[in-house]
Write a structure and sequence with these properties.
mainly alpha, single chain, 209 residues, globular, 0% strand
Length: 209
């Protein structure tokens, strides 16, 4: 249904979008630096589910409704900004809480990381706009089965985003094995928290209509 060249162009577009600094990148790095790669990858799973939900919504036309509704868009936008600021504060205030790589990870902590990853992306209107603005350019209308094509492109996007996010998690986790001084880890984590707060403010302006 979709030409291989189109799929390649779409994959490259997704990769460029995902390597651009954003909320997921800063938060996943801060989380993995303090909690390790296991919790980080759990959060990545939550992020992937959030992105997948918008992909399914796009195939059903729901994403277009969100993109065209000022009320829904603004509600998601400000909800996302508030949640990012809360995550930034949480990362700052818990900067001293650093677990060891061999520490036992509880179900509650895994569930919390998964839930935060999911909510962060469900409250991101740019995800809905991505599906509304980008996917139609790569859908072969003449081939029919628009919903199936949309789901295919959405799956490609989620896979690429998940691989990049997993790479961020593993890189941050590796960094904490190199930096053995807790004070340095604390400073880096607080720096990431400030970066996340700055991204939240940038997010508020960049998503303004």
């Amino acid at each position: 249904m979709i030409a291989p060249s189109t799929l390649l162009a779409f994959a490259l577009t997704c990769a460029v979008i995902e390597i651009t600094p954003g909320p997921n990148m800063a938060w996943l790095a801060a989380l993995s630096l303090s909690r390790g790669w296991r919790i980080g990858l759990t959060a990545v799973a939550g992020v992937a589910l959030g992105l997948s939900a918008y992909g399914i919504a796009a195939s059903l036309g729901v994403a277009a409704i969100i993109g065209n509704s000022t009320l829904l868009y603004e509600a998601l936008r400000w909800g996302g900004v508030a949640y990012l600021l809360w995550l930034a504060w949480d990362a700052w205030s818990t900067a001293d809480e650093i677990t060891t790589d061999h520490a036992v990870v509880g179900d509650h902590e895994r569930a919390s990381a998964f839930r935060r990853g999911l909510i962060t992306n469900l409250l991101n209107p740019k995800a809905a706009v991505f599906y509304v603005a980008m996917l139609p350019d790569f859908v072969n209308v003449g081939a029919g089965r628009i919903a199936a094509q949309t789901l295919t492109l959405s799956a490609i996007y989620v896979v690429i985003a998940t691989l990049i996010h997993a790479g961020i998690v593993m890189s941050a986790a590796q960094l904490r094995t190199i930096i053995v001084d807790p004070a340095k880890v604390r400073r880096i984590r607080r720096g990431l928290a400030l970066a996340l707060a700055a991204i939240a403010i940038w997010f508020a302006f960049s998503t303004m209509r």
